[in-house]
Amino acid sequence: MPERRTVVDGAWWPRSRDATAELPALVAAVDERLGRTTLRVGLHRDAWQHIPHRFPARGRQVRVGWFRYTDPRVITLTFAAGEPVVLLIIPPDTAAGPAEATLNLTAQDTAGLTTGAILALACPSPGAAPRAPEDGSARWENEGGSVTGQEAQAST
């Protein structure tokens, strides 16, 4: 079955899968950045631990809905006015380089790409991971999200 196309508006790199610990900071940051008021958060039930029914945020309670039939790699924020925002979740244990590449990639035009394709572009599978030369000449190229000065080598 082909992957459902979920249009993402950005990405989020939480520190853990503990929804109670992570959601308040996310909502505060999104509210401030967008100048909007988040009323509800929707997430995949099996992708998170300690999911609250609601949590406090700047003088209100934000409701949390959890579902089993949504993409576990995204979180949806619904506001008092305007369209919802869908964020691609970068797994908490992702290394800094690939996580930053994913953040940069989702800031660009990702129209037509599935969430899996975005993650694959920014975070290639370990079998295709480039290997750093021993002389330390490799460096991360921020704009393209690639490693320069390295040769790709499949692990065996």
From TrEMBL:
Residues covered by region (Disordered): 125-156
Transmembrane segments: none
InterPro entries on file: DUF5994, Ig-like_dom
Protein species of origin: Nonomuraea terrae
Protein name (Swiss-Prot/TrEMBL): Ig-like domain-containing protein
Compositionally biased region (Basic and acidic residues): 132-142
A Pfam family this chain is assigned to: DUF5994
Domain (Ig-like) ranges: 98-156
